[in-house]
Hints:
This protein is of the alpha/beta class and 466 residues long. The protein has helices at residues 2-19, 54-57, 60-72, 110-125, 153-166, 191-204, 249-257, 292-304, 335-338, 342-355; strands at residues 27-29, 36-38, 43-44, 46-50, 77-83, 100-101, 104-108, 129-135, 173-178, 184-185, 188-189, 211-214, 235-237, 265-267, 309-312, 363-364, 369-370, 381-384, 390-395, 401-403, 412-418, 425-432, 437-439, 450-456. The chain folds into 2 domains: 2-355, Glycosidases (TIM Barrel); 363-459, Sandwich (Immunoglobulin-like), CATH 2.60.40. It has a 6-stranded parallel β-sheet.
Amino acid sequence: MKRLALLAITMLVSIYNFAQNNPHGRIKVTADGHYLQHQDGTPFFWLGDTGWELFHRLTLPEIKSYLDNRASKGFTVIQAVALAEFDGVHKPNRYGELPLINDDPTQPNDSYFKLIDSAVMLAAERDLFIGLLPTWGDKVTKMWGEGPVVFDSINAYAYGKWIGNRYKNNTNIIWILGGDRPAVRDSMDWRPVWRQMARGIIEATNHQCLITYHPSGGDFSTSQFIHNEPWLDVNMFQSGHGNGHDTHCWELVTRDRRYSPTKPTLDAEPNYEDHPVDPWPKWNVDNGYFRAYDVRKQTYRSVFAGACGVTYGHHSVWQFVNERDEIINFADRGWRNAINRPGAFQVGFLRKLIESRPMLNRIPDSTIIVGDKGLKGEHMEAFRGGDNSYAMIYLPAGKRFSINTTFMTAKEVVAWWFNPKDGSTQKINTLKRTNNISFTPPIQGVENDWVLVIDDASKKYKEPGR
């Protein structure tokens, strides 16, 4: 009882503090359909972290510590699950509470959700949005995992309406259905269940909600199966951990951007930092782990291809590895150690870089790159501003290359090298605009990735990433 009273007091304090925060309002899709912004028009860059087991495995003080860490690194969205993956229906949270009474989605346990209430408020105080999954997908689509399947079209609507009503006044909620499961597979179609859950959320919030869907990994996204569902606001895919290095996330973004009606898209689960490479059905230890360089390559290339943001993940953080719970898939460290791994800092540099130039009119355009764009680990991606006043090119491996700047109207351009490892910059001399300018990065070779930033000299843009 004391613990629950503490949660209630914390929530009341957080509600007061919340009223002083979140000045820009909820998130919505931009008019062109490609990006995200706040209600007041302020641009919003989705920089997510997969904290899937946040509500299930952490105490409130631990949640606060984790949110402090993520806010300090520049994250904007925390993706977390109400009915968690690993026996989340039958294994209680750290306060001994189960989410449902008798496994019944129409009987949610109020005491369990009080912890989520407090976490949502703590996130708001730190300008963080919660990408809230009402349930992990195995509660709808077993296929693998713990389950049990507890949802059908009837109780999915009731649960959606209940949880939507509970958080209808929390303007820092982004709704994520799915949970690592397809909406359709062969002859099986679970769209009616998700459709009803979405309907419940929409009705409860009076349409004041942004909804996306987290599918399983592979060479597809939500766009192939539920793009035309009216409740789906944002497409999503996960380039994942099971297909080796350098999966073509940039091509998935390009494909999603071609669908009509236009909807934003993002990679909500690229390779996790410190995740074993391709561990299924059995891990070959010689494959090693994905490290920070792998994270940078995937996050930069999907964003430069036109995504509305990207999600980072760490293999020990999503499961919050601790001394109590079974370690999943060869995680190599505890979560408190993992939250300060290099990739977690470096994705914050990506956000700062994108926000240092007008970001809502970005146009993917690799024709800026002269000649070969490279394959797999050396594939380059580029974009330009809608007014042609700037461009950025990402090089996964430092090597000499050429660009065409004739898309600009300026007679002179300013060039910068931006280092994704540490966010530092080096200014290059002002150059004449031409159709073929060659550049050699300061350090060449594999694992020396760079961003070349080209600005219209007359705009006098600030230093990239500042």
